[in-house]
Amino acid sequence: MSTILHDMSEMRRSHGARRRGSRGERPRRTPDMRQQAGASAGGAHVPVLAEELLDLLDLAPGATAIDCTFGGGGHARLVAQRLGPSGTLIAIDRDPLAEERFVALAAEVSCNLRFIRGGYAEGLAMLTQEGVLADTVYFDLGMSSMQVDTRERGFSYSYDAPLDMRMDPRQELSARQIVQDYDERSLARLLRDLGEERYAGAIARAIVARRRQAPIETTQQLVDTIKAAIPAPARFGAGHPAKRVFQALRIAVNDELGQLDAALPLAWALLRERGVLAAISFQSLEDRRVKRFLVDRARGCVCPPDLPVCVCGREPEADLLTRRAIAPSAAEVAGNPRAASAHLRAARKRLATDVNTEVHDHGRAA
């Protein structure tokens, strides 16, 4: 894991004249420019649920924000604009492409910037040791558009590429290794638990049978194996027949659920009072974890209902900002189909005085 502290004044001066041309200062971005902002730094990345996230974060100039999953930088760019010159944005990502995008962003925004190259659980642990406090910590979970669109990384079932799926190319475990080395029972369990794949057993058997003849080394070879293993009607149902298998392999390769389980309490501990923790997830395994964590922070008394008074003394630590997950609008999905499965949840950390003075009778204010 590496960390980069950026004093970007020289880079901004060198890029400023080219960026502004003869018009002087950079124009202030308006809400209707937000989607264009997400695509401004060398790519067509469009941040999902961007306006909804910004509304929940409610950032003031000078605040400190931690972007745990920088990716293409779409959300970070919009957050940085809110923070202003006195604010600080700390970005975390283990993908080297994200680090390149970060350097491009650094030339465009005025806030203080720092990039940590590593998994977000490790990055948050580092910040905890340093005593950093933040006004918001947010996640955009799953794989980023730049990873899907970089064909040689092997994240997509739509392109033929080497089976890889590593978010950090420095790590040893790849999708090819799992497909080649796991026994049938382990493969079936992985596809069932991490992909919620209905035909996990049949697909695992087909993978083992095919690799006896020749190694499965490319995404197309794996897709062909999956299609041959499932009933014909399932090949033409909703979604691509390989979607859940690829999801399961990607999650396993990158330990995404383990990272999330470790990161959520670290993120919460880093928040100042009245700070906001938010997460955008794209599949139910992530969303359930985020929901459980936030609901648990917002829960008060947990005494049995037959006790006349509360004896546990538990007080809520959070106020939920989203009673139900926020989903993208039909207009956003029409413009960006990858947003279709997104769910946004958030909670605000309570003031210590709120926690200490509230009186409960079975979790209800007296």
What report would you give on this structure?
The chain has 366 residues and is an alpha/beta fold. The chain folds into 2 domains: 249 residues, Rossmann fold; 97 residues, Putative methyltransferase TM0872, insert domain (DNA polymerase, domain 1, Orthogonal Bundle), CATH 1.10.150.170. Helices cover 45% and strands 14% of the residues. It is built from 17 helices and 10 strands. The strands form 2 sheets. The chain has an 8-stranded mixed beta sheet with strand order 1-4-3-2-5-6-8-7, with helices on both faces. It has a two-stranded antiparallel sheet with strand order 9-10. Helix 9 packs across helix 10.
Could you tell me the number of beta strands?
A: 10
> Roughly what percent helix?
40-55%
Number of domains: 2
> Any guess at the CATH architecture of the largest domain?
3-Layer(aba) Sandwich
Shape: globular
What is the H/E order?
EHHHEHEHEHEHHHHHHHHEHEHEHEE
The span between the termini is 49 Å
CATH homologous superfamily heading of the largest domain: Vaccinia Virus protein VP39
For the record, the CATH class of the largest domain is: Alpha Beta
Q: Which residue ranges are poorly predicted, with pLDDT under 50 across at least 5 consecutive positions?
A: 6-44, 357-366
Radius of gyration: 22 Å
Strand order of the largest sheet: 1-4-3-2-5-6-8-7
Strand fraction band? 5-15%
Number of helical regions: 17
CATH topology of the largest domain: Rossmann fold
Name the structural class: alpha/beta
